[in-house]
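ugh ok so i messed up the first submission bc i forgot one of the chains. this is the corrected input, ALL of the components this time, i swear. 736 residues overall. if the numbers dont match what u have on ur side tell me asap before i send this to the collaborators (the ones from the other lab, u know who)
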Amino acid sequence: MKKFVFQTVTFCLLVSLAFLLLLSNADGKTDAFYKRFTSPKQESLILGTSRAAQGVRPDVFKKHLDKDIYNYSFTVSNSPYGPAYFNSVKKKLNENSTNGVFILTVDPWSICSDTKDPNDSTNFRENNSFVGKTTFVNMNPNFEYLLENLAGQYHTVLNKMDGPMLLHDDGWLEVTIKMDSASVSKRLKSKLDTYRNDNLPKYKFSSVRLQYLKQTIQLLKPHGNVYLVRLPIHPEIYKIEQELMPQFDSIISDISPATNGYLNLTTRNSEFQYTDGNHVWKESAAEVSQIIAKWIKD
Amino acid sequence: MFLLMFSTLLDYYTGLKMQDAKSQKTKHFWFWLSIVVNLGFLGVFKYYNFFAESFAETVSHLGWQVSPLMIDVVLPVGISFYTFHGLSYVIDIYNNRIKAERNFVDYAVFVSFFPLLVAGPIERATHLLPQIKKPRIFDYSKAVDGLRQILWGLFKKVVIADNCAQFANQIFNNSAEMSGSTLVLGALFFTFQIYGDFSGYSDIALGTARLFGIELLRNFAFPYFSRDIAEFWRRWHISLSSWFKDYLYIPLGGSKGGNWMRIRNTFIIFIVSGFWHGANWTFIVWGFLNALFIMPSIIMKTNRSNMEIVAKGRLLPTVTELMQMMVTFSLTVFAWIFFRAESITHATQYIQNMFAGLFSKAGYVNTLNFIVWKTGLVIPVFLIAFIIIEWVGREEQYAIATLGMKWHKIFRWFFYVLLATLIMLYFGSKEEFIYFQF
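and heres the new structure output, hopefully the right one now
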C-alpha cells in the first residue's frame, strides 16, 4: 500500500509540474487579457474598455512622450468604472510612482450599468469576471488567472491557431481582420443591432460608477497627471450614446477640473476607420494615440 | 434516488419471496410483480411521452386531433442500467440460476455500486455478488492496473471524445450548410466521439472498481477492428449485448427454430436494443439498420466466424482482413448517423446531402478548410495516435494494459505523465457522458 501511495503521489506531482510548465507557455495569443495580468506594477496606465484596449497604442506614446504607458483596459463587461476595476487598478499601480501619465478613457457605457438597479454595485457584472476575481495581477506566469479562466481551454496555450487578436507586451490589443467595405458594414450592422436592441434598453446611468471614476482619478492623481479622453466612434453608435446619456459630456466636464484635462474626440468621429463602429482600426488607433500624445505634450 | 431505493427494495424483497415461495404460482406472482413494476417505471419515465406523441401523430393521419397528456419529468440518471441489473437478478432467481441474496446491504451494493450505477457495465448477480461478499484485500498490481485503465479511459473521454464532440456537433447542427465530404467527416467524428465517450467511461468504471478489488464485466473489446457486424456486436457494449442474448434472444427461442426464427429474433433484439437507448425513432432505426447489416451472416450462419481478435499475434492484418474491417467500420459509421441525428428527417437529409455532395470538388476544398481552420492538426494527430495505440493493444483487456511494460521505467512513466498532462490540458469542457442520458 505504501509503495502504491508513494508512486501515486509522485505521479500526481510530476503531472502537475508538467501541466504548469506547459501552462507557462501562455502568451499574447492565448487570449485577449492574460498578458495584462503578467506585467509588473506600472507607473503610467491607460484605462477603459475595449475601445481603449484596441484604440490607444502605448508604442505611439513611447515615441512622442518617451514614456511607457501600460494599456490596462479590458472590455465594457469587465472594466467599466466600479469597485472591481478600481481594486484591480490599485493593484496594478506602482505606489512609488510620482511622475506617471494616466489616460482614463470614458464613454457613457463605462459609467452605466445593466443591473436592475444601476447603483447596486454588489451585482455589477464585472464582480464575477476575471477583473473582479483575479487576486494577483502582476505575476508571471499567472497560474491563478490561467487556472480560473482557461478551464476547458488549457490546450490553447499549445495549440495556437492563427486568430485575429494579439495582445502586445505593452497591453495593446492588436486586432487584424478584413477591412473591405462589405465586411465592415456587416460588423457595423451587427454592432448597431446589439447596441440599439440589447444594450440601450438595459443600460442606465450609474452614479456609483461615476463615483468610482472620481475615486480612480483621486487614486492616480498623487502619482502623476491624469487625463480624461472620450475616444472616437462611428457616428451611428454615437447617436445611440447620445440617446443613452445626452448629458454625458457635461457630466465629464464637471469632473474634469480634478484632472489635467478632458479631450473629447467624438467631434472628429468621421476622421477615423472603425472595424465594427465601436472600435477604431489599428491604423486609426495610431492616429488617435498620436493626437492624444500631442494634446498631452502641449 | 427514491426510484433507485424503491427498485432495490422491490427486487430484494421479491427475490426473497420467490426463493421462499411454496408454490410455483406464488413464485410466478412475485416474479411478474417485479417485472411489471420495473418495466413500468422504465416505461413511464423513459417512454411514456414517446408513446403518447407517437399515438397522437398516428391518429392525426386518420384525421383525428388528439392532444396527449405529456409528463414533465427528468429522466432519472442510470434508470436503464439499474433496472436491467434488477431484472437480471429477478430472472436468474426465477430460473433457479442463483439463490436470492439475504443480506440487503450486499444486494444494495450490487445494484448501486457507484462506478457502474449511471452507465454500466450492466452486471450480473452471478458475477458481482460473490465478489461483494468476499473480503477485499489491497492488491498492488491490481490497483496499479486499475489506475492505468482509468488513465486510458480519461484520455479517451477528455482528449478524444470531447474534442471530436465539438466538431461533430458543429457539423451535425449545421448539416444543411455542409458539403458531402464534411458530412462524412462529421459522421467520423461522432463515431470516435461515441466510442471514446462510452468505452472511456467503461474503462474508468472498470479501473475504479479494480481499485476496490472488484472485477466488472468487460464492456468493449476494440469494436472498430471488427471484420463483420456480428463481431462488432460481440465487442461493443458487451454487457448489454449479452444481457439481451441471455434474457431476450434465448427465451424467444434463439436460433433453435430455424432460419426464420433466427431472423425474427435478431430483428427483435436489435430493435429493442435501439429502443433501450432512447425514446426516439432514430434509435429504433439505428437498431433496425444493425439488424439488417448482420442479416447476411445470420442467414449464411457465418456470424461466429470471427471469434478471435483480428490479426492475432501479427503486427498487421491481411489485405482481406483490412477490407473486411473497412466495410464493417463504414456500415457502423453510417448507422451512427441515425443515432446522433435529432430526428429521422434530420438523419435522412444528412445522408442525402452527404451522398449528393460526395463527388463535388468544391466540397472537398470546404472539408479541407474545415480541418485546417476549425479542427486544426492536433486533433487528427491525436486520433491517428489513438488508433495506433488501440491497434497495438488490441489483444489486451484495454489498449495500454501492457503497453510499455518492456520499456525502461522512465520511458513508461513519461508516457503515462504525457497522457495525464494531455488530459489536464483538455479537461474542463462541458461534454457530459452520452450514456448518462440512457
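quick check: The longest helix of chain A spans residues 2-23. that seems consistent at least. The interface with chain B takes residues 1, 3-4, 7-8, 11, 14-15, 18-19, 22, 151-155, 157-159, 161 of chain A (CB under 8 Å).
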